[in-house]
Structure formats: C-alpha cells, structure tokens
Amino acid sequence: MPRQAQPTATSPLALQTAAPTPQALTSDAIGEAGSATALAKLNTAVAELKAMAVAPMLQRAIDAIRAEDAKTAYDWAVRALEQDEHSGLGWYLLGIALERAGDFANSIRAYEAALKLLPDHGEVACDLGRLALRLGMKPQAEDLFRRFLARYPDDPEAANNLVCAIRDQGRHGEAIETLRPAILKMPDNPMLWNTMGTILSDQGDFANAQVFFAEAMRLDPKFPKARHNLANVLLMQGDIEAALVENATAIEGVKAGDDRQMMRLARSTMLHCVGRIGEGWDEYESRIHPQFSGRTAFAINRPRWEPGADLAGKSFLVVCEQGLGDEVLFANVLPDLIERLGPEGKLTIAAEARLVPLFQRSFPMATVGAHATYDVSGVLTRVIPFIGDGATIDLWAPIASLMCEFRRSLDAFPPRPSFLVADPKRVAHWRRVLKTAPAGLKVGLLWKSAITKDSRHRYFAAFADWAAVFAQRGVTFVNLQYGDCAEELAAAKRDFGVEIWSPPGIDLKQDLDDIAALSCALDLVVGFANATFNIAAACGTPSFLVSVPGAWTRLGTETMPWYPSTRVFLPPGFGQWEPVMAEVADAVEAFVAER
Q1: 149 and 36 share a domain?
Q2: Tens of pLDDT, residues 344-357
Q3: Are 566 and 575 in contact (CB under 8 A)?
C-alpha cells in the first residue's frame, strides 16, 4: 500500500477549459465526508473488530477525522490497509481523509473500493454519490443516491442529494416534484428548503428562491450553504452590500475547504460589483486554489510570478485560462505587461488554439502558441506543449492573476480603444463581401451562448424579446451567432419579417481570426457577452452590450472598462428584458440616423 496517493496517467483527451465564472456558482449536494452520523456508525463497526489488529488503527483514523486532521487520518487508514487490504472500513476512512484533504479523484477510488467490500454500508454510496456530483459525474451520482434511498427511504440527506443530481441535469420540474413530498414529510429540515431554493435560482426565480433560503436559515441559522446561496440571489437582485454580509458570514461558518474556496470565488464577484476591484482580484485567486474542486491546475515547471516581482528584462510565460471570452477579456492586460518587461524582456503567450493567429498579430513581439488541457486524475490540468524543456522561462502566471497587480482600480484600465488587431486584408475582403448583402448599415447580432452549463440561459433574453430591435429600418442584420441557430434564423423571417444575413465562407465557431476581421468590417455589433462579442469589442468595433444585474465584469460601473468602444444596456431587474431591448432598439435607430 503506497504511503501517498498517486495521480493516474494523463488522459489523451484534450479538454476545453477551466474554472467556473463566479456567477455560475450554486449550492451542490449537501453532506460532509465523515459526518457525525457516519463516524458514529463507524465507531460501532470498529468496536465489533476488537479482536482484529487493524481495529486500533481504524479507531485512530476516526479520531483524527473528528479532530479535523486529514493527514493523520490518511496515515492511519493507510497503515490499516497495509495490514489488511480487504478492510472495507479502511478504504472508507481513506476515502474520507482524501476528500477532506481535497484529493477528490483518489477519494473516489477509495470509496469505490469500500463500496465493493461494504455493499450494505449505505453511507459509502451516499458519500461516493455526493463526491461524484461535485466532480460533474451527474448520472453516476443519481444512480448512487437512488441505490442508497432504496435501502434508507426516509433519509433526508440522500433525498436532498438525489434532487441535486436531477436538478444539475436540467430536469427542474422532476426535481421539484421529487423534493416537494420530502419537504411535506420533513418540514423542519433546513437543507430541503435550501435545495428547493437552488432549483428556483437555477430557473432565474430569485425572489422566491430567497424565500426558501431564508426559511432554511430560520431553521438553522448556522447553515453556511444556505447563507451562501442567499448571498448569490441578493447579488442577482442588486442588493450587493447585503450579499457581501451574508457571504462573509457563510465563509466564517463553513468547514470544508472546497466550499470555502467556492464561496471566496463568489465573494470576488460581489467585491467587483461594488467597485472594490483590488480586493476582488485577491479573492479571485480562489479559482486556482488546490482545495477548489472546480479549479484548473497548471503543469508548468517554472517559478510562479508573484505581484511586486521585478519584470524588466525577464522571460515571462502567460497562460490564458477559462473560456474563450475570458481569454480575450483578460488579454486587455498584455500591452501593460509588455511595457513592464521592456525591450530586453521576452513574452510567451499560451492561448486557446483558435486564438493563436489573432494574438500573434496583436502582440508581434511575443511568441504565441496553443495550450492543451487534460483530465489528470479528475483535475483539469493545463500544459504548454509548444515550450520545450530547455526553453528559458524566468517566471509564469495564469493571465487573470496579473490583474492582482495591473488592474487594481478603474484608473488602471487604459482608455485604449482596442488591443486586438484583425488581419487588414481580411477586413478589406469582408467589406467587399458585405456590399453584396442587402442595403443598410451592417449590424452583427449575437443572442445566446453555446455554453448551457451552470444555468447560463438565465443571462440571455429569449429570441422573441428581440422584436423591437428587429423592427428597425435602414439596417441589415448580420448573423455572428455561432452554434446551431437555424431555428432562430427561420423565426426571424417568419415572425418578424427580417432576413438575418449569414456571411458566406466562414465557420462562426472555429474561424476566430476571420471573425475578428468580419467584426471590424461591420458598422456595429449588438448582443450579449459571448466569445464573439468579446473579440469584436477587443478589436474596437462599436458595440452595444446587453448586460445583467450582478455582471462582475462591469466592475461596479454601467460601462465595460475593458472595452471603451462598448456601450452597456441594463434591464431594470433580472429577467426584465422588454424595457432594455426597447432601449437597444432606440439606440440602434439613433446609430443609423447619425450615419
């Protein structure tokens, strides 16, 4: 039996990216590895093993877990398994210790071994299901919770967690109907009220979600996840100061390291929304904390940059992170970094492969290549394959970490109109092609995100809400929307009498360098914040952004400090799309009249 948990081999499947955005955070399945109830049952089970040599070791592991000492618990569980590798209790305690230490991938393996040896010990299935749900294995988690409930039909924690697994697969109606009888049966159970609140929050019903979170906290004032969830819905409803208070209290009361980092990440959102930008970036570092299960790890064998380090003349590696739009947004800082490195310095940029040509042209003094991401023992791990072992790299940093030094206040955002450079030949090409489209100013449209995880649909208006914009005259709307949008294009023609012109010869998802050129050839881009919108705005194209309450990227303003050429439009409340779309329509009309 090894003395340390070892990672598994790297998966050959390259993955796309990365840490969640703060707005996406919601409560997950409840329960703690080695809960008081589970430890009491383990005590009883170990007491029945008094004649066995492993019993004292198992007991010491239990005592260490009670004392919040995951390392000691791990050591004693390993010793027990070295004595008897078929000890199901030993594997279960090892799984608890590993989970408490943040080693989720190896914890799952230990729980799986325990479940094979202890098929009648229901807590193993429940803990394994909860951890599987945390790591995104939703159907597997659902199966495990159903298995546990078949044996313990009145267990509230398992009922709650089954509902979380159903909810996280987008089956909100089924989740509500599964949870309702549990609440009626156990109305004094706060976690059931909390989970009902998360279902409503996922659907954008923040006012009613707040009622359920408040009831959960009335039943248990020391319930940190309910308080965290309440903070999030307060943020979405615009009460940011109250959200910060609830968030701070939740962080004080939480025990699990993963939950603490998740709550810190949510706090970074709130701090940005009230303009406490420097503090927000400090808390944003939680996205890559080793205890955060949603993190992206970086396999880079070079010294990590820290704020305040001298950069003049250094060879510096910047690793872009998160989604495509985030990689573009955070590239706002690269001109400042280049200036700080000076003429003797050398910059290397690792970006998403589709962004490499655009970034290389925009930052010609840098070496730009593609990063790759793999699943290593359940942790997304980013590597830089184009850099050889002999490459000189003095320092490296994830790109968002640079904000801790370079963007600590609004004044630190330079008024430069653009920081990405489209191919001038392709811009000229698209200007010629656009002349073949119907007459009128050419206005690019973006109305949705291709990413559907984390209930992201809440941040986009329904296509029908664009009616007032489509009614504008003197405009040819140009489709910039990547992904399958055939249904919306047909609806525009059928329901609004508008032909949204699709540019020929371009893949709107893959050809990002050409998208930059097409955007620069347009008169205006209108839409929500997705990757294409970020590219257009970063290139300096006049842009109208439809934002939402609680959008942290506005940094407490009603503008986009990252993109001076962008004008922001805000609904009066979350989901109140009709008035803001009417305002966008008026702005488009005025834009046409001015030209």
Answers
A1: yes
A2: 999 999 999 999 99
A3: no
